[in-house]
Specification:
The chain has five helices and three strands, in the order ααββααβα. By secondary structure, it is mostly helical.
Length: about 200
């Protein structure tokens, strides 16, 4: 009998093979679910960092502008480092650093669009450096957008409060600084091949 089984061979068992394939598929599905579950808390932490950075940048910009309007506007500039750096309150109807004063409404719309894009992008955010960069952009955009909406001469046409005046350079504010820092960081991250979702690619 044993010799007959050896000659004939063991019959194929398709049910067993199918069960093995099913188990492999289930194992892969379970691994994907586990990976997604592990990524979810990390993604939430990155989003929290983004909004925390944005809140800090926005609060610093708002508080500084309130102080400047209350204490410095209609007064002589304050010299911080001789002629090289001073605080001087001005109202800027243009973009960052005083460019494009004839397009105030357009800049307001652009700032609002940037905020919407950043909020939508936050859903796929898993990179800490990107969270910081986008948080700086969001906080800066919100800071200047607040001026556009609530300051004179009117809604969506308001002039931004600028006060940091380096020698030989345009006057700007903390929101402008946050936007520039966030933009520079994004350029550096892009050169390194790091995407907002945490993946790294090399061309």
């Amino acid at each position: 009998m044993a010799e007959a089984e050896r000659i004939i061979g063991t019959p194929e068992t398709p049910d067993a093979d199918r069960d093995g394939q099913d188990r492999t598929g289930l194992d892969r599905a379970d691994a994907q679910v586990a990976e997604a579950a592990a990524e979810a808390p990390r993604g939430k932490r990155r989003v929290a960092v983004l909004f925390a950075v944005a809140v800090v940048a926005y609060a610093l910009d708002l508080i500084s502008k309130m102080i400047v309007v209350a204490e410095l506007e209609h007064h002589e500039p304050i010299e911080i480092v001789g002629d090289w750096l001073r605080f001087e309150a001005i109202r800027n109807a243009g973009a960052a650093f005083g460019f494009g004063e004839a397009f105030t409404v357009i800049f307001t719309v652009i700032a609002a669009a940037v905020i919407v894009v950043i909020v939508r992008l936050a859903r796929k955010l898993y990179s800490l450096p990107w969270a910081i960069a986008l948080g700086l952009l969001l906080g800066g955009a919100l800071g200047n957008l607040t001026d556009r909406i609530f300051r004179s001469p009117g809604v969506f046409r308001g002039a931004v409060v600028d006060f940091i005046a380096p020698k030989g350079f345009a006057v700007f504010n903390l929101a402008d600084s946050a936007i520039v820092c966030g933009g520079v960081l994004i350029v550096l991250l892009s050169f390194r091949g790091l995407d907002p979702d945490g993946t790294v690619h090399k061309d």
